[in-house]
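Extended Data, panel c. Modelled sequence:
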Amino acid sequence: MQEKYDIIGVAYNTTRKADPYLFNRLLHLLHPTQQGIYLDIGCGTGNYTSKFAEKGYQFVGIDPSSTMLEKAKKQNTSISWKMGKAENIELPNESIMGIVASLTLHHWKDLDQGFSELNRVLKPGGTIVIFTATPNQMKGYWLNYYFPKMLVDSMNQMPAYTAIKSCLKKNKLNIDHTENYSIQPDLQDLFLYSGKHNPKLYLNPKVRQGISSFSSLANAEEVEKGLKILKDDINSGTINTIIKKYENTDGDYLFITVKKS
């Protein structure tokens, strides 16, 4: 069976690069040591995994897409790259000091099983850093105005904070800290809401190709129609009014720091 990112991954690194700010937050929250082994679950092409390795940290990168992993291997040969999914991690019990799970929860088939596996491979006292968006946050994206069905599909796929918290607790993992993230104008990792301050990004087919909501969930007819309206609104300046209507203080994405007792 072909994985979603076997298709998306073909030109993925054209628009999806490790963002310096996001990497530094992941590094700060994970607080790794150079003695332990760490896991990047759903590592994709390994952009962030490779940044950790460049700083001397030992990482294993796991992803279900062979296309993504082939690109990852070309970036860094010192990292152990493995095919796999969160629900079935082929690593020994309590072998990992810490875990990064960035923009991956919504691709898991079974959130409970995924966290059960993370708990199994994580050492006592270990840390998991999750970077995700919640459906409530996504309701505040101005993309809803242009691509309503696509955003509903995306929100349905994205686990709610209460569901994440419940699954973590069930698997004896405790939320230690949460931190909202709002899109910065200089963001280098062009994921779903990366064009918050620069709507023209969405007119670029390469940018859309690297975003799973556009390339996998989207209704083609809606996207074509929405892009036409968006382009017209950018040219007329109407986009500024639309953006203002969606302003909120909920943050666009969320860091969740988790501890294993």
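DSSP finds 13 helices and seven strands in the chain. This feature is highlighted in the accompanying rendering.
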